[in-house]
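Colleagues,

Please find the record for the two-part complex below.
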Amino acid sequence: MDAASVTAGDPAQVRVEGVWKVFGRRPREAREMAEAGHTREEIQTATGSVVAVRGASFHVAPGETFVVMGLSGSGKSTLIRCVSHLVEPTEGRVEVCGTDLTQAGSAKLRELRRQKMAMVFQHFGLFPHRKVVDNVAYGLEVQGVERRQRQSRARELLDTVGLEGWGDHYPQQLSGGMQQRVGLARALAVDPEVLFFDEPFSALDPLIRRDMQDELIDLQVKLRRTLVFITHDFAEALKLADRIAIMNDGAFVQVGTPLEILTSPADDYVRAFTQDAPIAKVLPACSLMRPLDGAAIDPGWPPVSSSAPLETALPHLLGSTSPVVVCDEGGTPVGLLHGEDVAGAISENRP
Amino acid sequence: MTVAQEARPKANGRRSASDSRLARSVLALGAVAVLVLGFRLFTDVSVFPESWDIGLADPIDRARRWLINNQTSHWLYAVLLNPITDAIDWGIRRLESLLRWLPWYCYPLLTGVGLWWTRGRAAGALGLAGVSLIGVIDLWEESFATLALMGVSVLIAMVIGIPLGIAAWRFDAVSKVIRPTMDAMQTMPGFVYLIPFVLLFGVGRVPALISTVIFALAPVVRLTEVGLRTVPQVTVEASEMFGATERQTLRLVRLPQARPAIFAGMNQTTMLAMSMVVIAAFIGAGGLGQVVLRAMQSIEVGQASEAGIAIVIMAIILDRFSTGIATADPGRDAPAIRWLAAAVLAAAAAGGLLGHNEFPESLNWQFAPYVDDAVDWARDNLYDIGGSGIGTGPFSDFVTLEFVTPLRELLSADIPWPAMIGIGMVLGLWARGLRLAIGIGAALLAIGLLGMWALSMDTLAQTIVGVAATLAIGVPVGILTAHNDLLRTAVKPVLDFFQTIPSFVLLVPVITLFHVGRIPGIIASVIYALPAAVHYTDLGLRRVPSEIHEAAESFGATRSQRLRRVEMPLAAPELMVAVNQVIMLILAMVVIAGLVGGGGLGLEAVRGLRRSDAVGRGFEAGIAIVLLASILDRLTRAIADRLRPPAAV
C-alpha cells in the first residue's frame, strides 16, 4: 500500500520512504525473499536474518497525529527506532524537518535531536539517579543550558503536566502514570517540533491510560506538534489518530483516517480489529445520516454537528422515536440521523 | 588411551542422553582403574624422579642475588623501580602522618557518626566502641600503619580499576583479554602474589602494596564493566534522543546508574586488600599483620588475639561502611547527621592543631594476659581431657592418622605419578574435552618437573580433607537454612562475620586449641570456607521455582523425595559452584597455614618469603600453587557446566 497517496498537505515534517530493517548477517537475501512473499519464519530459517520492517513509507504533516498500530512483533517498535534513528535502517530514506537523517553525520543528527525531536518511551526510560526535575531538565542540560534556567523551565513543564510539587522526588517514588507524565514533560522541555511516542501508555492501568490519552489530546489541541505514535491498542489508535497505519509482519497493511479504516477495512486482518471497535465513539454523525431531500424538520428535533461522534446523539435517540438534525459547520441542516440506523450499526458493530 | 577417546564428549558440547552419560562415566572410571593397576602391577614407577627436576630455583636465586647487588647501581632501578618505590613509600608516609595528625578522639567519633548515617544507630554505637577498643588495647600506631597501606592500595586499585572496567565495557577486544585475566587472578591464593614482587623489590611496604593492588584489583574492574553493561538500554536511548554525545551519556546516564555495582566492586576490593595487607606482614609490610605474625611465631596467643581482634574490627567497619555507601538510597537525606559530621570534623581540625594525636596511655588495658591464661588452661585441660583420650590432641592425631597421612601416602606414593597425571586427564576429558585434559596433564607434569610433586600431593591431600569436611558440614546446613527462614536469619550474620575476617587471623583461635601442625590449618580452612558452602547450597535450593515445588508436591512426593529427586538435581550447578568456591578457599588457606606448620607447598612458599636463600624454592612452590589452583578451578567449573540443564533455544 502506497502511503504517499494519502498524505495530507505537504510539506510533510516527517517523510519515510521505503524503509527496511533486517537484523542479521544476510540482509540482501532476506530482503529478496521478503519481496518474493515469504513469511518472516521462512526467511529466518533460510538466512538466519529477521526482517523487522519491510518497505514502510509514510509522510506526516505538521501538527498531525500519525499512529502506527500493530501487535507485538509486527515491527512497529523497530520502525519508530528507524525513524528516530536510534536504529540505522538497512535501506530507505528518513527525513525529519527537511533533513535526511540517513545522510546526516552524527553531529548533524545530534543537532537535529537537540532542536527538533523528542521521544517518550514505553517503560518511561526515566533516569533513576536523577530527581524528577533533573530528569525533565536533561535535554536542556545536554544542550548546555545554564542550571538555573533549565530548572525553572523544567518546573514550568511539571506544572503543565500536573506534577507541581513533585520535582524533588525521584522517579521511582512516583506511580506509573505520574512517571509517564515526567517522561512527557521531559520530551516537551526541549520544545520539539516532532514527538515520537513508543507505546507510552501500554504499561499503565486502563483508567490511568484513559486519563493520559485525554490529556495528550488536550495538549495536542494547545501545542499542535507533529506526533508519531506507536500502539498495540486499536481503540487508542482510533481515539488519538488523525491517520492510522496498521502494521503486520513488518509491513503496512492499510493507512487511512480512523473512519476510512472502520468503514472500508483493507482485508480480513484489519477487519478483525474493527469488530470490537467502539464505533459510537469513532463514527461521525454524518456517516449514518439520511440526506435531507427537502423533508420537513420539526423544531423540537435537536441539532448535532456532522463531525460529532454518534454517541453525542444517543441520549436523544434512546429516549425518543424522532431523529436528530445533522448540521454542517455553518449550522445548516444537511441530513437526519434516525435511531434505527444507529441501533443497527451498533448492534452489528459495523457501519 | 582408546578408552579415554571414546569417553570424549561430542564436539558441539551439547549434552547427550543420560544413558550415554552414564556410559561415559563408567568408561572414565574404568580408564582410571586400568591406569592405576597397570602402573602398579607392571612397573615400579611411583615417586616422581628427582633427576627430572629442571632446577628453576637456581637461576631464580642467582637473579635474586644479582638484583640485591645491583639495587643501587643498575639503570633499571635508578630509572624505573627506585622512583616507583620512593613515590609509593612517600604516599604511604604522607597518608600515615596525615592520619596521625588528627586528634585520636575524632576516629571513634567519625566512625560512629558515619556508621550511624549509613547503617543506623546500633551500628554507629558499635563502631564507636570498636575503634575505641583498638586504642585501649594499645594497637593505635599499628592500626594506622595498616590503614595507610590499605588506603593507598585501594586508591591505586580504584584509579587503575575503574578506567580499566570502562575500557573493558567500551571495547570488546579489551574485555576479551581482561575477563580471563581477572578470572585467573581471582583463582590464585593471595599469598603467591607476594613472591615475584619480593624478588623484584625485596621486602618492605612497596612490594606489599603492589601485590595488594594486583590481588584486590579484579572485583572493581569486573563490577565496573558489569555495571555499565547492565544499564537499562531505554535510558541510554532516551539520552541519545536528546542529542547527548557519547561522553555526556557516559557521564550523566551510564556511570551514575552503574554506581551501585562499582561501589560493590569497591567493597570487595577493599575487603581483599584488607586480607592481603595482613598477609603481607610476611614480607615486612608492618602494621597489625606484623603483630599477629610475630606473636604467632612465638606462640603468644594473647598478643595475637589482640591484634587479630583489631584486624577484625577494622575489617568489619570498612565492610559496613563500604556496603552502606553502596546501598545508600539516593533519595535519603539526613541533614542532622551531616551537621554532626561537620562538627566532629571541625573539632578534629582544632584538636589536631592542639596536638591531641596520641591515644592517652591512661586508657590502656590489655586482655592478652587473660587470653594467655585461658590458652594455658585449654592446653592443660582440653588437649587431652583428663587423660581420657578425648580432646583436641587426640582429635588431631585421629584426623592425621586416619585421613590426612593415608591420603597423602595414597596420592604421592601409592598411586604412581604417571597414573596420577592420567587420572587428571581422564577427569578433564570426562568433564569438558581434550583441551582441558591436555592442560591438566601439562600442568601436573610441570609440577613434577619443578620438583614439587610430593609437596603438591601433600597440599592436595590437606585440601581434599578440608573440602570433604566443609561440604559434610556446609551442605546440610545449607539445606536446613533453605527450608527454614528463621534458621537462615539466625545463621546469616554469623556467616557474614566469618566471611569478613581476613583468612590469616582465623589461625589465631585455632592454634590456641590445636597447637601447630597440619590439623589447625585444615580446621581454619574449613571455618574459612564454610560460609561459601552454606551460602551456595542455600542459594541453589532457593532458586528452585516454587511452581516446581508445588508440582512435586501435587504428585505426592515426600519431603525427602522432593529434596533428592527434584531440588538437589535442579540445584546441582550451584552446588558445584559451591564446591568450586570451597576448593579455592581451602587451598588458599591451607597454603597460608604453612606458617603454622601446615607443611606442603605453603611451608615452602613461606620459607621463600622469609629467607633470601630460599627464594628460588619459594618461587617454584608459588608456581606449583598457581598450577594446582588452576587445575582444580577449571575442572570443577567444567563439571558445573556439565551439570547445567541445556539452555533454552
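Residues 137 and 154 of chain A are 5 Å apart (CA to CA).

Comments are welcome before we finalize the supplementary table.
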